[in-house]
Structures are given as structure tokens and as C-alpha cells.
Amino acid sequence: MLSYVYLVAAIASEIVGTSLLKKTDGFTRLWPSVACLGGYVAAFAFLSQAVKTVPVGIAYALWAGLGTAGIVVIGAVFLGEPLSAVKIIGVGLIVAGVVVINLGGAH
Question: Where along the chain do its domains lie?
């Protein structure tokens, strides 16, 4: 169970790092760059703990898929990025893919 807590922390950290990426201005702004890289370092640290017991394919599918879905929502809500029907369908397909991978991972 603790591994899934690590995985949630990894997803959240990756979302934070990615959310700050634009504010780094190409890594020319110090503090946003430090925060962004810190988010990514934390994400990989948590992910490395999660994969001790969660299969790598499952962990990575959850991390990448839910991270992508989360950043699309954050982009739309906080960064003023447009949210089209195509993006919504794409996120739905990503989530469906993560579900299928997790269902297939039980065998």
C-alpha cells in the first residue's frame, strides 16, 4: 500500500514540476527553475520507491498517464490553455489505456 502512496506522490511531484516549466522561461529564471527541477527530482525519487513492489510497467503507466491527464487539466484551469473536445477525448483515451494496462497487469 505504501508503494501506491509513493506513486501518488511521484505523480503529484511530476505535475508540479511540469506546471512550473513555463515559468522557468527556458531555465533562465533561477527560482522557478529550481522548483521545477525539484519537482522532477522528487518525482523520480518517489517513483523509484514505488517500483520496489509495483511492477514497472504498471507504475510507469499510472505515472505518465495520470500525470499527463493532470497537466492537461491544470493547463486548462490555471494556465489559460484551451480545452477542446479533441483534448478531452485524448485524455479519456489515456486514462482508458492506463486502466487496460492495470487490468492486464494482474495476470
Answer: 2-104
